[in-house]
Amino acid sequence: MGDKATIADSFGPLLRATLGPRPAVSFEFWDGSRIRPDGDSAGTMRVRSVDALRHLVWAPGELGLGRAFVSGTVDLDGDIFLMLRALQSTAPNDARLGAGAAWRAIGAARELGALGRRPPRPPEEARPQRGPLHTKRRDAAAISHHYDVGNDFYRLVLGPSMTYSCARFVPDDDGSLETAQRAKHDLICRKLGLSEQSGMRLLDVGCGWGSMAIHAASTYGAQVVGVTISREQVELARRRVAEAGLSGKVEIRLADYRDLRGEGFDAISSIGMFEHVGSKRAAEYFDTLRALLRPRGRLLNHAISSPGGSVMRSRSFVGRYVFPDGELVDVGEVALAMERAGFEVRDVEALREHYARTLRQWVANLENDWEQAVSLAGAGRARIWRLYMAASALGFEDGGLGIHQVLGVVPEATGNAGMPATRRSWG
């Protein structure tokens, strides 16, 4: 290109200002120019168009970068886990640009022609909703955004178990995701005290595609009511129940937990549901579930947590593309909210290493059948799932994210909770 400046020449100072002097990944730009690390590269970030920079100009930070990735104007070529970890480890702790760097960024953007029109937002993006958080209508829209993207796409990612929550890998098992998900369901059934002979009545809140309900009914003889507000989940869950020959034992309802009134249950499972409730609705949530349980009834709340809590803001990638209005509540606050609702908290178990392993298998499923995933859900949606699942796996590995099963019981007036003396009964 002679003496003419390349994209890398113009972009390099800005890149180093935001990612540190020695980025651990390579960068390749649309004119073919490159920026390489001093040592080994964890992979290549390909910036395919000036629109990638326009996304960052119009929405600086995480949201703009997310839009560039979802639109395909930025791509990651290599082991996504290594690349994300490398970028995380080399970026400065304070990602804000100083005044000098900010002016250089504006100059570089002008030189590259990135100060023009606003690029269109990717169609997969959820627009921020108006009105109070966690109304029934707003929750239904948020749930539909995430879960109603195609049952076949979820089957490809999740595998035969169709279970969208942390698995539990037992050392002596075969290590497969399907076996680990079955082990998780079985652990929850044992914690809830389900018995093969008793025909206990179980409520599964946020039942997904019915996997927990099917396991509890087929293995422990439970009479199960599963509720979800995802229409696509209801359709497939009912079909799976019928195919398992369990229509007389499992009922799947399209219903919000706030509509559950006047029924009695011996046990309640809430698996991967509480993240959609929000801390301000936690009291209402646990009060509602408490009112549905008979004396000595148990609740197992299985949910992602974050030390100190974390709200998925609308300017974040996860808040805009993955879990609109989602919130991760500190496990201590969860236990306290359960106690205030009248539960006696009897057990808390952390499973974060298991979730990291689960997510890595989901990413492998997606990458191994990438073309089919794109044909089912579109390239943008497939990109979203690849990035958020890989980043989440790293969050569970480094402790930034946690996941806990909190077991509560409703004691009788005498104080009898009907609980075993030790954990031995559920292993």
UniProtKB/TrEMBL annotation:
One GO term (biological process): methylation
Keywords: Lipid metabolism, Methyltransferase, S-adenosyl-L-methionine, Transferase
Species name: Nocardia halotolerans
EC id: 2.1.1.-
Stored InterPro entries: CFA/CMAS, CMAS, MeTfrase_dom, SAM-dependent_MTases_sf
EC category: transferase
CDD domains assigned to the protein according to its UniProt record, in alphabetical order: AdoMet_MTases
An example Gene Ontology molecular-function term: methyltransferase activity
Region of interest: Disordered: 114-135
Superkingdom per UniProt: Bacteria
Record PANTHER family: CYCLOPROPANE-FATTY-ACYL-PHOSPHOLIPID SYNTHASE
Pfam families with a match to the protein in the record: CMAS (PF02353)
Residue intervals of the Polyketide synthase-like methyltransferase domain: 153-394
Name used for this protein in its record: Class I SAM-dependent methyltransferase
Family as reported in the entry's similarity comment: Belongs to the CFA/CMAS family.
